[in-house]
Amino acid sequence: MGKTAIVTGASGGIGKAIATRLAADGFAVVLQYQGKSAPVDQTIQEIKRAAGQAIGVAGDVTKPEDVSNLFEKAVSEYDQVDVVVHCAGIMPLSPIIKNDVEQFDKVISTNLRGSFLILAQAAKHVVDGGRIMAFSSSVIAKSTPTYGAYIASKAGVEGLVKVLAQELRGRKVSVNAVAPGPVATPLFLDDKTPEQIDQLSKIAPFERLGEPEDIAQIVSFLAGPDGGWINAQIVRANGGFA
User: Fold this and answer.
1) Of 68, 1, 55, whose CA–CA distance to 23 is shortest?
2) pLDDT tens digits for range 147-198
């Protein structure tokens, strides 16, 4: 029996790169998405043309019933879940002084509540010896203005990961978070000027933005046979950004 991976937020950017990479690594991949199905359908066709296996499941990671359905569909299609990679998230920016409670609640709901729901179902469904990964961010170390809600949500994710790793003691299931620095995806590039993007690309010693494939390589390692001894860690994959 082959192995199965669930990847949330797989319609584009880092999530798509991870889904494609894990499929190339031999996983049957369940691509979770919210919104239009066309981008995920295209990725699934790419995976199948390369002799891989993949299905898409629509849903909202903030809704318990949608998250339960995601895992049920994965088990129904592929019998078991070996790896879960939770990439889905949002990053609207606003200074704290604006007191934008509506935006704050949306960020916390998607990034933190969504992570809680996915991690809870992953703990329930992942086979012994499996791998669970959430996503944080290296921007936590910078305390960058306007990132207050986003940083708060990702700090919460890091806390959940460390606790869940302890709660799964005895099952040989690793629980980690990947914390990218700036990556050239729409999530990061939207609402930034070319000058801001150029400035941010120079912060890391490599003097470039990360690419989705850079992060997919880290996930591939953590999901593979050589990544099994890494547990309860925040892997800051950022080219030296922090």
Assistant:
1) 55
2) 999 999 999 999 999 999 999 999 999 999 999 999 999 878 887 888 988 8
d(CA 89, CA 8): 9
Is 186 inside a domain boundary? no
> Which residues form the domain of 133?
4-181+211-235
Domain count, the chain: 1
Q: Is the pTM of this model over 0.85?
A: yes
- Helix (H), strand (E) at residue 191: none
- Rg, C-alpha atoms of the chain: 17
Judge whether 195 lies within some domain: no
Lay out the sheet containing 126-135: strands in order across.
54-58, 28-33, 4-8, 81-86, 126-135, 174-178, 234-235
Residue 34: what residue type? Q
Active site residue 78: no
Per-residue pLDDT band at 31 (split at 50, 70, 90): very high
Q: What interhelical angle do 13-24 and 38-49 show, nearest 10?
A: 20
Q: What is the DSSP letter of 76?
A: H
pLDDT at 212 over 90: yes
